[in-house]
Structures are given as C-alpha cells and as structure tokens.
Design brief:
The protein is α/β, with parallel strands linked by helices. The protein is built from 10 helices and 10 strands.
Length: 288
C-alpha cells in the first residue's frame, strides 16, 4: 500500500520511502492511483507496463525511431517498477547474487548500464563500499540521483567514461533495437581481462522487450565470442546473469558473420529447444 506522509514529505509504497521533492506531480498522481494496492505480483507489474506502452501508442513490431520511447521510459510506471524490484524477493535475490559476485572478483570500477532506480548500485555499495560505480543511464530521474546523492563513489552519467573492471547490463539488451551495437559499446568500455555481466531476457514477457532481439535467446553467448568475450558461466543464484571475460578485441567481420547466422538459426532454436525440454521433462517423469 502506498501512503502519503505530509509530515515527512514522503510517499511510502510497499515499505519504500520516496521523497516528494524527488517526484514530479505526474509521479505523485500516478502513485496515488496504486495507493490502495498491496504489493502486487510480477504479472501485475508486466500488465501495467504493457498498459502504459499501449496508451502511448507504441508498436514493438515497427521501427522504434520516431516513437515515444522517451515518454515511456520516463513514465512514473518505472518508479513503481523500481520500488517493486526493491521489495520483490526474486529481484532482491538476483541483485544480491550479482553484487556478491562483483565483490568476489575484486574490482575497483564498475559501470551499471540502465540502473536508473540505483537499487543494484546501492546493494553493491553496501557490500563493497570501496568500489566506484558509474550508473550509465539514458533516462536518468531526479529520484535515482537523490537516492545516491550521499554516496560519493556512486554517480549517474549519460555515457561510459573510460575503461571499467566490470560492466553490468541487467535487463537492458532486450529493450533496445540494436542490442549488439550497445553490447559492443560495453565491451569497448571494459578493460582487457575485465568482466561483463549480461542478464538478458529475450522473451516476450512485456511489450517493451523487442521481438527483433529474440534471435539472441540461445545464440547470445556464441555471438559474444566474436566480440572478444569468453563465456565463463552464470552468476551463482541467478542463472540468467551470464558472465564473460574480455580476452580480445571485437572481430568486426566475424561478428557480422555470426549475427547473420544467428538471425537464421536463432528463431529455429527458439522453437526447437522448448520442445526438446518438454520431451525431456516428460521422459524424466516416466523414467526418473
């Protein structure tokens, strides 16, 4: 339940306090509409994001250029989504696992791309306060910047600034029309020998996951090898967070070739692998 506390000038939603000074009136108005809700399910969150997507007239089957993506990603539904991610047990578990992993590999400088609500950055800071964290955010909010204002080692920036020991992209690439262009920028911003963590969701769970990216669902690790990346496995505790080490440079010709193959093979794998998994599941029930 969301509560407006006039005495402290805060909105408290699902136990998370949001300072009024960091919110636009549209944010406050929107939060007031969900004030009667208890903490919802992730399905409700997805449906609400889809509702806003449709209300803005966006179309994930068409080219994104010229569409109101800025309005969508600046909408207060992302404030609610940020609050939800701060209290949802599964989301909390994923951030905790990533933060523990980053601390364990011993880095000094991290870039968190698209970490607008700053929840991952704050969790990492709590575990490893010595790490400098740049939140690279195309759609920064006043709320996000205020949440980290007292943390001198965390800052919001608009683009990568130099080379990092580790670059994190959690739930990012499926939202952009040219995911591999962005991934290449992340690789270039990573030191040789450094790590990249890609937590991708190339599935149609919400409309802002662009179908044009879904060919990467089972081919991403293979395509990434043409970017000079070595796949090292998954973060313990969150299997969709893929860990890579930068071992070389981007091979442009090989990358183009791999992408061309992936765009043909990827959609086929998207159909075949779920069928194979279903058959294996049934066989295990018959012959445990």
């Amino acid at each position: 339940m969301a509560i407006y506390q006039a005495s402290t000038q805060e909105v408290v939603i699902w136990g998370v306090s949001l300072p009024i000074v960091a919110l636009q009136q549209a944010d406050i108005d929107y939060l007031s509409k969900v004030a009667s809700l208890e903490r919802p399910s992730i399905e409700w969150m997805w449906q609400e994001m889809d509702r806003i997507w449709d209300a803005l007239g966006l179309d994930n089957q068409a080219a994104m250029q010229g569409q109101a993506l800025g309005d969508f990603y600046s909408h207060p539904v992302w404030v609610v989504n940020g609050v939800f991610s701060a209290v949802d047990p599964i989301s909390v578990q994923h951030r905790e696992a990533i933060a523990l992993f980053v601390n364990r590999i011993g880095v000094k400088r991290v870039a968190d791309y698209g970490g607008g609500f700053a929840e991952l950055a704050l969790r990492l800071h709590a575990i490893a306060p010595h790490i400098h964290i740049d939140i690279v955010e195309p759609y920064p909010s006043k709320l996000g910047t205020m949440r980290v204002a007292s943390k001198t080692v965390i800052q919001f920036i608009n683009e990568f600034d130099g080379n990092y020991d580790c670059v994190i992209a959690q739930d990012v690439l499926e939202h952009v029309e040219r995911p591999l262009v962005l991934a290449a920028q992340m690789v270039q911003a990573t030191k040789l020998g450094g790590h990249l963590i890609f937590a991708n969701c190339f599935y149609p769970v919400i409309k802002c996951h662009l179908p044009s990216t879904f060919y990467l669902r089972y081919t991403f690790t293979w395509v990434a090898s043409a970017m000079g990346l070595k796949f090292e496995g998954c973060v313990d505790g969150t299997n969709h967070a893929l860990v890579f080490r930068k071992v070389g440079n981007i091979h442009k010709y090989m990358l183009r070739l791999f992408v061309s193959i992936a765009k043909v093979v990827g959609p086929l794998l998207n159909k075949i692998i779920p069928i194979q998994d279903a058959i294996k599941f049934k066989l295990r029930k018959i012959w445990p």
